## 1
Amino acid sequence: MNLSWQWQSIQNTSLYLMEFFALYFGYRKGWNLFYTNLIYWMLIGIPVAAILIYVAGIPLETIGTIILLKQPINGVLNVLIANIMVLMPIKRWLGDELDKKATLQSFIKDVLMAILLLPIFSLFFVLKENIEQQAVEQVKQNNQSFASIARYTIDDFLSSYRQAMLALARLMENPWQLSRESLQTKLLQYHSVYDGFLTMLIADETGQLQFSSPKNLIAKGTAVSDREYFIEPKKNLRPFISDVFMGRGFGNDPIVAISAPLLDEDNNFVGIVEGSLNLYQLDLLLYMPDVLSSSVLVLDNNDRVIFSSPELQLDFLQVIKPVIQEDKHLEYVVDLGVTDKLYSFANTVTRQNWQVYFLNDRQTFINQMSISFRRLMILALMVILATLLIAQLLAYYSNRPIQSLLSKFSRLSLTDINESERQQNVQAFEELQLLFDKFEDAKEKIVHYHKDAQLALTDKISAEKESDAKSELLSKVSHELRTPLNAILGQVQLLKMEDLKEEHIEQLEDIEKAGKFLVFLIEDLLLMSKSEMGELSISRHSIKLNDLIYSSLKLFDKEFGRNSIELTVDVDATQNSQVHADAKRLQQALNNLISNSIKYNKENGRVFVETKVSNNCVTISVKDTGVGIAPEYKDKVFLPFHRLSFEHSDIEGSGIGLSLASRLIHLMEGTLTFESVENKGSEFIIELPLLDDKTKVATPEQEKVISIGSLEPFQFLYIEDNKTNFMVLNAWLKKKQAGQVVGAINGNDALTKLKHDTFDFIFMDMGLPDINGRELIKKVRELGVTTPVVALTADGSEQLKEQSQSLGFDAFLTKPVDFVLVERTIYHLLLER
């Protein structure tokens, strides 16, 4: 790829032909060819090139500047190479007739210029190619990453509302046995929680509309039996998501209909519950900051526009036929067929078979590369001028002893030579030879050192950019995944506070279990990525081993009971033993081992947890009677993303638990080993250094059973731009009768409310659309607000958590929220102060 070679050949040929005539004229006059060439480009070549570029319509501020800089550089290099490799041999072959007009100093200067410039410009060429290649790869990676994030966002958005509709259908089992007032009230309450639905309705098995939210919707029509969202759930007894359409009777909003069947106790179809989901919420979910210069386009399976960034200027449901073309710079680009713009892109497909395109304007990329190359060309011109000055000085000082020696030879040719003068001449030749030898050694060392330094600098810059990009992507992916999980797990915790049937409670616990598994998976992936980048660190201190083991086992009480697995614990050997480790990371590693011993066990199996002490070391053994590990997979046990032949089984897992556990134990100067027999079971053994029994370990205080419900109500401020997150916390505080919650949708809104009202407690999201959390907490404290402020964010990075106190926060909580921790935090900050 060469951005500067976007010019007609006749224009290049014209400039170089004029350069040839200028050099010929200078040679006939006895001028130095190098200086002649510089004068030509400054007085004739560059002005003529600028005129030709203007006539050709090439933007002078981008590619045109590169062409202007590149032409004289090419000309200078061509003359330099031609002078050394062509003209000098011709002069020697023709004798001194052509050499009369050349001087020794000029010859030395030309040779030095070649020696210095050729390796430097070779390095410039390699650097230029590397910049181009890295830029193209960066564009591809960014496009693919953001396209995947957009797909996950859309899938999670639709899935959360589909699950909400399914949950409502299950809550309304045997709906016609309830009173009409009760059904209407439930529908209105559910609609207030999931206000992304424009309308919601309940129809009976014949398709007659019975209830709606808003209530006046019944007056606009009473039969939906011909609608696809009624026919499909009735036929398949499964939730259904329709194609996108414009709103009927209540505006021009883009809508998908999401419906779920209502069933009686015998699983017979008795009606549907349906919600019309407003897709304008995608404007917020798929918002692209202006600094990214990027766009998002979503098409349904009929190539109709479902969502497009504003700068694309496309209409909703407009039919678009993207055409992929080959491109000499970016390999492939896409033409949307509505403007003359081309885009670099990445595309992917959602669960609804919607096409998601992440687009970057091709011309923007070309302009960015032009700026980089322009800087490189200016640097090249500066190097040429600096090299010319150095070569001139070196040639001058190198030529002085040679001229002195030639002068002596001239005198010797006219006079007699005695032995003393002959010895002096021999000594002068030897000094001259020594001078050239030293210069050659110095030149080789300079070129070698310069090349190594440039390569090292290039590798360092590339590694730093890759590390920064990975960290930024991990932070964004973590935030995007935790946000919908917060809505799901928050709603589950709220529903569990209701008086529900045992069957419904079990269903909610299944949803909660799946959601928490996703949270653990996100944390494991982030830790694994930090480990790959060498950024994973631990904080070691003295801990009581048995307390940590019992804490881990308590987390799996329900799992042991649900899977009918007998647990045997023998940790008497470490009753008072202490280890020097990171408690959080050690418990995470132990949790992975216990979880695997349950998941891969047999029905009515057994799990043994045992500790031993020997040779100043303590071992923790987790042994099961499960399926074991086949011999051919034993060397892959600690490799990440290997499920060891369980990839296609119904056992949940990601394949990174054991790999992460091994790395965490290794950071704590311990080892993780295993023994396994196929179909008989496995035993995983953690070995850690044992601390002296005399080392004191602080005994943790017994956690108090607290409740904020019976206290005087407080005034809360929740700064959150996501409506679902606000509704979840607001609903929980209302159930706890903790007080009134005032919402602020962004940082400026919050500052306005704080100037006019007083609050007892503040929750703050860190990723607000106008002011980020770091800046907002600073502005809040500058107002003189001393109210406790808690960071409630989907960014769970350790770096942010460690910085939160110095920024001005009183506590730090991550999404998905755990209401037990929220209640304990409120109690501590408001009542124990």
Note: DSSP finds 19 helices and 24 strands in the chain.
## 2
Amino acid sequence: MQDGVNLPDDGREKNRTAIKPRAVAIAALFFCILGGAFWLVARQMEQANDHALAANANLLAQGLGDRIDETITANLHALENFADSWQGDAPLDERQYLSHASSLQSRFEALQAVNWISPNYIIQFVAPIKGNVPAMGADLKRHPVAGPVLDMAFDQRKIQMTPTLELLQGGRGFAAYVPVIDSKGEIIGMVNGVFRIRTMLSNVLESDYLAGYTIRVREGDSVLFEMQGDSTDPRLTRSTRINVAGRHWDIEVTADPDISGLSALTPNMISVFGLILACLLSGLLFMYANRNPTAKSLHRLRGRENISDLALTINKADGHLRMMSPETASFFDLREEDYGFIRLYNIAPEFQSDGTSSHRAQDKLLTAVSQGETEVRREWVVRSAEGVHVVCDLLMTPSDVHPDCIDVVLHHNPAANAAVNRLRYLATHDPLTGLPNRALFDDRLNQAVAHAKRYEKLLSVLVVDIDNFRAVNDKYGSDVGDETLRSISGRLRATVREKDTCARLSGDMFAIIATDLSEAEGAALVAERIVEAISHPIPIAGDEIRLHVSVGVALYPNDARAPSQLLANADAAMYRAQKSAESSYCFFVETMNNVMHARLSLETQLRRAVDEKRFVLEYQPRFRLSDHGVTGFEALLRWVDDSGQRHLPPDFIAVADRTGLLAPLGRWIIETVCLQINQWRSEGYLPVPISLNLSGRQFIQADIIKNIVEETERQDIPPALIEIEVAEDIAMRDPERSLTQFYRFAEAGIGLTLDQFGAANSSLRYLKRFPIQRIKLSRSLFDIELDEQPENSVLNPAVRLCKSLNRRVVAVGVETEDQLAMLGAADCDEMQGFIFSAPVAKDETQTFLTRQATTDQPGDH
């Protein structure tokens, strides 16, 4: 060694400059291995991403297929029920038939027409009459499409459906024919329903969470419905087929690439990064291998596997968390303030894969390290924030930084996970329905309660019991009973959100956990959907099974805080529901039942009011500030209930919107307003525009513009006499979509107003692009205390901004002289409020029109 150290200078220089072939070979081999590894990882990541997206598309296609099938089945069942209502006798006259058909059409928007066909194939009655008068008296015997289908319906004495076809009103649809059989078994007529496919499927497919998917519904080569998404890659496209009354429909879904969170450039970037890293490390390795042999020797480090997926530090005494890496915190959804309450076994399931209690297994590991073990290893199952069980290789070592702590490293073990997850699935799911069983339900309920407690959320537990299921088993046997349970489980899954849990607790008893509720009414809506879904007949073995269901509802934290007590209270509520009424739900707290029953009563009254048109419109005039001339009216809806009391829109609009009653109500409003304008004109008055307020749902409906255009054409009035008011917060929810809709209104010649400006956060970029004529100020901009300094008000800047965009500025709700003076000083163009006039009945509007004529035409005096 001494000789090696005391080399002459030229020898040392030679050793420094010589390139060793062995060093080059090592560096080249390392570069190929590392660079190749990164390239393989990038390719596998790309393939795995495509596989995951394709699997997502397949699952979504199957789910949408089930939902579309249920939707079509529900519509066809409604038509069959309507046909059954005439078994006593055929309709006597058109009025009797329309009174029944109108109610059916109001509940099923996709039902475009309901016709009565005589046994000799003649159309006797049509509903609605509007647009269908030419069809009355038509002979369908020789019709190339309807004739053969009618023959089949008469011969087979059951519902038959045509292939999809182009409807006279535009769009594709299909017709269904249901024979009406009297008590003697004779066919006394045929009910014909015409369904619009886009309307029927829009509620299922036009959802925000499907925005990025490309979805097509086909029958053969015909495209029945198409929604273009962000990708058309055939590798990411999957399809499923459903049977619609003997017709095969294919549902094709192309996955949204964005849902994976993986950019298309990511694999290429990984490859490039790997090559760069391989070059750098290979260079360092070459320099090391080519070093001077007399240099300082390497210190060999103790070998250790690469187990660095999840890292955390725990207290040696009791296993409480002390710290963890950001990746670990994200995996378990933990924050720093949670550490003092969480131990190692709390982020694991109750039992490990070998059957050992996680709590006891943790204590044994801590004891081993405390007794001097420098490394402790074992297989360890953890539970992610989503409730997924993951098998890991665990390594415990004493912490070098904190003497009273232990460092824990968890390495993901894919091979073990595949087998363990399969076994765990079989142990935690019902083999008949595929739903979670009681064990998994209890585990998820514990997690849900802990989450609700941590984030102060409301959750509900619903216990569902099929009251007359025993009779199904007794009458049809266990095979039909099992098929019925599978149908029930499918319907229950369809009524809840993906993040909610639906489980089978026992034979005919199910339970649901609905999380993150904003109010108790959300639990009531879930219960109503369950009752409605289970109450629909289940077609089994050529027969129909009608079931009755009882649902009990308990809320956290209102009814209980402990998971077991919450479930027990929901069970008690279910038994009370069984005793109260057939197919009903019941809350654990009686006062909540009163609230929900009051809401149901309101819905019932509102439905009857829509059918009987027990609504009136009042009109509040809008005035120019310069000469107090009338520039238009705002139509305000009032509901007159059974007692004669008038209700303002805040009392019932939300209920009407949620229950689908706002669509027929909106059509009535449009028709009434157009008739009023036509009446003004016929009485010799100069018509002025009438503005209508739209809800968020109405604003994006495709047929709202069509309804306005058709009604204005029918009354022969310009569309510009109808103005649409959209609140600022509605327009800014999805500004790009709102911009498109605004332009559709503008192209139809309909006036546009942005309402409640200043009440939400507007974007100046979109405010400039919206094709609106007026901006109505939020009352909060000028409804200030009298002692507030005017110079501190934002009214003047808001008015100047609107005027700079060449929009007319309207102040609504002006009630005092002080407000009038303030708005006049701010240079508002128009005003509306009680200081000028309260809303008036239609017979009183002529007074303002006469005044307008006097103001606009001073030469008449």
Note: The chain is about 45% helix and 20% strand.
## 3
Amino acid sequence: MFCIALALPLPGLCAPAPGDCVRSAPAPAFNAKQPGIRSYRFSPVSDHEAREYLALTTGESVDIRHGGCEYLVTTLRIKSKSIPIRLTAGRDAFLTAANLLRRLRQLKDTSGFDLALAANTLSAAAKGNPAFEEPLAVEGDGTDFLQAQVASGRCWPGIRRRLCTNYAFQRTAVIPFNHCKGCPMIRPALRLVFCLASLFPLSTLAADAAPAKPVYGNWGFDLDGADLSTSPGKDFFRYANGRWLDRAQIPADKPGISLRLAISDLTEKRLHELLEQSAAQVSGQPATLETKAGAFYASFMNAGRIEQLGIQPVAADLAAVKQATSRDALAARMGHSQTGFETPLFNFLIDVDLKDVNHYALYLTQAGLGLPDRDYYLQAAFARQKAAYQRYVAEILRRLNWPQPEARARDVVTFETELARVSWTKAQQRDTVATYNAMTIEQLQALAPGFNWRGMFAAAGMPQLSKVIVAEKSAFPQMARLYSRTPLATLQAWQAFHIGDNAAPYLPQAFVDAHFQLHGVTLAGLQQQPVRWKRAVTAVSGDDFLAGDRFGSVGTMGFGVGQLYTARYFPPEVKTQIEAMVLNLKAAYRARIERLDWMSEATRKEALRKLDTYVIKVGYPDHPRDYSALVIAADDLIGNVRRCAEADWAFYSGRYAGPVDRSDWAMTPQTNDAYNGSLRDIVFPAAILQAPIFDPNADPAINYGAAGGVIGHELTHGFDDEGRTIDADGALRDWWTAQDAAAFKARAHMLGLEYAKLEPVPGAKVNAELTMGENIADLGGVTLALDAYHASLNGQPAPLLDGYTGDQRVFLGWAQAWRGKVREEAVRKQLATDPHSPRQYRGGIPPRNVDAWYEAFQVQPGDPMYLPPEQRARIW
């Protein structure tokens, strides 16, 4: 019998002799006489570190006291043959067991294992675990012992695999927690060790012990995709990615191709398999989370049923619009925009009140436009798209049997053009101070008369609302005035069109094709409509958090599907590794803030306090969303969309009057993105933690450049031109001295000048004001990633890999993470609407502002990318 031991520690551990298995006294509170159980010792940690680490890694805990010390322990046991499971741990420990059993399922020789008993027992345990609403479909056998325990002592550093004989199967996750009074405290360090061993045959273990290869190249970077004939100082993005860019072909149904989109493709494939399997289990009225998701998926795939129903599913909505014989009545219909297919003139959402951070507030923002941005109506460069939009409006109205579709389409586009004239720009909307205007309902009515505010709020289920926060304050009165003067027939046609547009992806194929022709072909440059199953996955699971389209963002089972996705596809050990990396990035940021030469001590103190308050969330929410009351029917697609939207709005509006839930997530686990939120939280969903962003088998320098860069990017958002207006308590407050604020703005302006010169497509340059926050965060990301990588070396030199230094590999990891190209139409849309710069600039521009990049790649004066030291933006 053999043991595979993997250690995932932070710096400061001592190592045993090569080949030696660590032996120590058994941990207190556990029976050491059970055969095959071994213990590992760890250095104690500080209260703060232990609490923070434990909060990130465990769901529940029990107290154990021993020798004047207090420990928090989670335990999950699987014993041989009978396999009784006792769950006192949270979701992570359970997923560890589930992943273990799945691995055993893959064995060719399962003789001697009771597979059915293993699956049934694990399913029974799932039923009793509050983290799951239903059993997981797990096959396999857990053959001996799984235990998370606490101990003190020593272990070895690095990720190492060691073969040890004469020990039975075990998996041990050791989480230190020590705050014993009077005990000498050793240098704080957080440790997490997984010991894997098996009753497998020797041949099986030998195969398992072989090092896994990275997804890209031999050490995590795809050298075959680099263009080494291009000098890094001429075009660093092409140097890192050029041959891949030359070979890659954008799929007909995509706006672009990239390694990040490859992550999305893999996630989409997994979701497809999951939903197909879930749909196959549907029989009668779905009652479990899995069968509800499967029935929703099946309702989208049932094209025959959709064609049969025609526009009947939205007939009641259209009738209500026709019956709204006054502007007040029509304004009240907009209250259903969160739960149906109506569109509002003023959008509303619930979020943390930035000046009362313990409570929620309802925010109002400008809305009413069908094209991506006001510029599409007002700039000659988008005349073709605007003309196509008017034809699309007419086609949708005609298919809805709306009278005079061509004439009404002209009226609708004229109305929206006038709305666009008074709307704020995307850059103006980034001003957190200007967009926070708290007022009572009476004050709102005085600000923007001519609109039925109370009617809209009542229809949204919030009749007692007394306070709102208005974003674009100067636009509201002009928009309300325009609404009050526009003919009712135009407003009715406008609302009818938007109902048809929002519902089009769920209606018969003629609507789907028309919707794709505008949104896919005209606005994004796609050449082929995604196949039906891909659209079904989006409808049920949701789309990218920042996709910008209503389809895939309203009326989904996103968080429910996320529970199913992470249970099957997210390894708990990835969560642990990312959390350790985050601690290193935070330490690097602290060090940089402490030595900034342009910041006063007063501002520095506040900045450090804010940095310490950030909470990192990895993988999935701690508290699953409850879908038990949600009704899903396999033959009612639009009804499913409505009921999911109603459930979501009930969730958010239902907690409006209560305390702020600081464990909340704004992204689903299957989202290929990350964000820095209003809760001073930085969230990394499970789906983004895949190569090239994070590969557990890649060289650490590559992971620091990619995943570390993303972590640093999100940390920096808390201190960019928007984030710096929020203090350590999450409140909107100016905590900067005037001199420091001026210094920050001057440094940010220098970076903005650099981006303002960039022209990715003819006649369209990067909007430096719109992209300022993301550009600052990208610069912070690569800078912090490099610092954190240096710290991870513990004073040792970085190894050379294929002749590349550690610093070179960090920069290459960053550039590879942005490898990709996008269609011209999609780039133009991005430049007008998206606060992110095009990916070639995200990968290539930040490094040229970092001194270490010049030394790493020997970039010299005269090289096209060379910036004199005094012109390099140095912010954080």
Note: Confidence is low (pLDDT under 50) at residues 1-101, 107-115, 125-209.
